[in-house]
Specification:
Strand content: 5-15%
Shape: globular
Largest sheet: 8 strands, parallel, barrel
CATH superfamily: Aldolase class I
Number of domains: 1
CATH architecture: Alpha-Beta Barrel
Order of helices and strands: EHHEHHEHEHEHHEHEHEHH
Structural class: alpha/beta
Strand order of the largest sheet: 1-2-3-4-5-6-7-8
Distance between the termini: 32 Å
Number of helices: 12
Length: about 300
């Protein structure tokens, strides 16, 4: 099975776990059954927003959710029943180093939920600690081999956090790091992951500010005969203006097929609901509106004259 996925894909991501329970509910450590139910209910509200987006015109066949097993409750089965794409994470939440959420039983969990895409979030800087990088690559190769053997799609979320020396080289300015250093570091990270024999179908990558950087990243993603491998843009919790810019840069580039955005869509309306400031229906409606707005931004940029 050749790697890749060439259909449009708009994903609403809410597989956040550790950060979600702490920042929304102040729950530290392992939540008990009652706390888990509260968190799951909040996540279901996000899904209700997706259902409103579908009712308002989002096409189910290119629309998906990225949701976790721990707090996802009935969302995976409901998404399947509605004809939506389903992505689910394999990584342990809140770790600086990639590790499996369910250790050696990861395959059993994937087969139980049968997602369209198995997702990992990996923090990998090619100038980072060599031993740490090698250990991550070893585990990711294990997952990649399993997915390939079972003919399953691999969605790889790549984050490239700055090393201290890199940040120092741009005067401690994270915006300069993002613009001047991160694109090439991302390309190198993708190359190292590929060289380790890890087969990725879709790269879920941080937005970049220039179209030529989007083109560079696609070229690397497709190197070595990986002609059908594609990329989607993640939101990183940024404000609308920043995410709009990233989408506008990426959408016209052949090899980008959409986005996988989370907090930028649901954070504010969900927080307002949890704080008792708005009704549940209003929160779902706003989530739907935010999702559809990003779809509109992407599609306008993709079809713009002279793009």
């Amino acid at each position: 099975m050749n790697p890749g996925y060439d259909q449009t894909l708009y994903i609403l991501a809410f597989d956040h776990r550790g950060s979600f329970q702490k920042k929304f509910f102040g729950i530290e450590g392992e939540p008990d059954a009652e706390q888990t139910a509260i968190i799951a209910d909040a996540k279901h509200l996000i899904f209700e927003g997706m259902l409103q987006a579908v009712a308002a015109g989002a096409e189910p066949s290119v629309t998906g959710v990225l949701v976790d097993e721990q707090f996802g409750s009935t969302v995976p089965s409901e998404a399947r029943a509605r004809g939506l794409k389903l992505a689910m994470p394999a990584e342990r939440s809140g770790q600086s180093m990639f590790d499996f959420q369910y250790d050696d039983e990861f395959g059993e969990h994937i087969e139980r939920f049968d997602p369209d895409f198995t997702k990992v979030l990996v923090r990998y800087n090619p100038d980072g600690d060599e031993a740490d990088n090698a250990e991550q690559l070893r585990k990711l190769k294990q997952l990649s081999d399993w997915l390939k053997a079972h003919e399953r799609k691999f969605l790889f979320e790549l984050l490239v956090p700055a090393e201290p020396a890199q940040l120092e080289s741009v005067g401690g300015d994270s915006d300069r790091y993002d613009a001047e250093l991160r694109p090439e570091l991302m390309r190198r990270a993708i190359a190292e992951i590929q060289d380790a024999g890890i087969d990725v179908d879709i790269w879920k990558i941080e937005g970049v500010d220039r179209r030529e950087d989007c083109e560079m990243l696609v070229a690397q993603a497709r190197t070595g005969g990986r002609d059908n491998v594609t990329c989607v843009v993640l939101g990183r919790g940024a404000d609308d203006a920043k995410v709009d810019h990233w989408l506008t840069m990426a959408a016209p580039v052949d090899g980008f097929i959409g986005f996988a955005i989370g907090r930028s869509i649901w954070w504010d309306p969900l927080k307002a609901y949890v704080d008792g400031k708005i009704e549940r229906s209003a929160g779902a409606r706003k989530i739907a509106e935010n999702f559809l707005r990003f779809v509109s931004v992407y599609e306008r940029a993709r079809t713009s004259v002279g793009a």
